[in-house]
Structure formats: structure tokens, C-alpha cells
Amino acid sequence: MRPKRVIFWIVGTLAVLLGVALGYYNFILDWNDKPICHKLIMISFMGSMHESGVNVANDPKPFPNTKGVGRDSLTNICEEMGGYNDWIRDYGYVPGLKEDDPGDLVIMYFNRPTRWTWHGEPPTIFKKKAWILIPVDFAEGMRPKSGPGELSERVSLDEFRSRLKRTIDFIRTNERPNWQTIVAEQTKFLDSIDHVSQ
After folding, report:
1. 30 CB contacts (<8 Å, ≥6 apart)?
2. Distance CA 48, CA 90 (A)
């Protein structure tokens, strides 16, 4: 074989391989709707709610609740994240819960369906979308989990709706501080997702 032909085949093969890799990266992997690190969220909650060195199991606290407004309440943990708060627009937060409440209640959720399960591994466009919720026990309790996730659970729309409704009912029944505002805000969100397809 002539050297020019060998070079042509090598360059052509490399170009095809590079094209396949770029095509997979840009058109097969889904880079949209990526969640934040849920370990960072849990650590930020613990840091904002407990003094250093306290045994969290023996000192259950209420999660942040600023007048029952989810977004305002969630900003309380941003200081623990170095002031970073861009991620808040992607999450719903349910104020009014405490660390010793039933572990399967929903404290946070990704506010739209996503193909992601956790922030570190991009899914393909062929993966079905689902909802991510973060339960009170950060999916680390002894109860059975509804789906995989990083301190969270990836669930169907029906499971998500059922768990959020149960959480709203729990807050209403126990008349947690600002419960009327919490119930109104979360019910409005539930009503808004009836048209969302997975």
C-alpha cells in the first residue's frame, strides 16, 4: 500500500470515529433537565439546621419554613452551598416537615419529569422520563424505596402525585406552621402537572 493511501485511511477512520463520538455526545445523550447533587442538598440542610457535632438522630428539627413559601424557605440552605442558588428554579420544596416525620413524605422534588436518575451519569434520549422526589429520610430509611436515586427516588407520575398528596394531607392534618400557604402552593403545583406528559 502506498503511504498516501494509508494516511488517507487512517485520517478517514479517525474522522468517522470522531463523528460517531460527537454525534452520540450531542444527539443521543440527554443533557437537559439535570438535577443537582442531592448529597449536597442533604448536607446543606443538616448544616443549616444543626450545630456542628450534634447527633442528628437525637435532635430532630423542622426543615426550613419561611411563611410557608417553598422557594423562600429553600433559600435558607443556599448559604451552606456558598450562596449558589441557580438550582432552586428546578426544584419544588415542601415546607412544614420535620426530620422525624414519616420518611416517605416528600420534602423536595424536581419540578418536571426527567430522564436523569442522579447528577453524575447522563442518560440517553431513549430512557423514559420520570419524576425525582427527595423524601424526608433522604431515601436512607429502612422502608422499601419506590425507585433508584441519589438520596432520592425516581418514580412514575402516579407515584409522585400520590406521595405529594399524602404529604400535603399530612401537613394539613397536623396543622404545621403556615400550613394554609403550603397546601395552597403545593396543590397549585399538583393541578399544573395534570397536563405534563412523561
Report:
1. 115, 116, 122, 123, 124, 125, 127
2. 21
Name the phi and psi angles at 73, rounded to 5: -70, -35
pLDDT in tens, 12-27: 777 667 766 676 667 7
pLDDT, average across residues 53-67: 82
Q: Of 151, 170, 197, nearest to 94 (Cα)?
A: 170
- Distance of alpha carbon 117 from alpha carbon 129, whole angstroms: 10
Residue 175 — φ and ψ, nearest 5°?
Answer: 45, 55
Q: Where are the alpha helices (DSSP H) in the chain?
A: 3-23, 38-49, 70-74, 157-173, 179-192
Chain centre distance of CA 55: 26
pLDDT tens for residues 82-91? 777 889 999 9
Domain boundaries, the chain: 1-30, 32-195
Instruction: Please identify which residue in the block is written with the cell numbers 404529604.
Output: 167
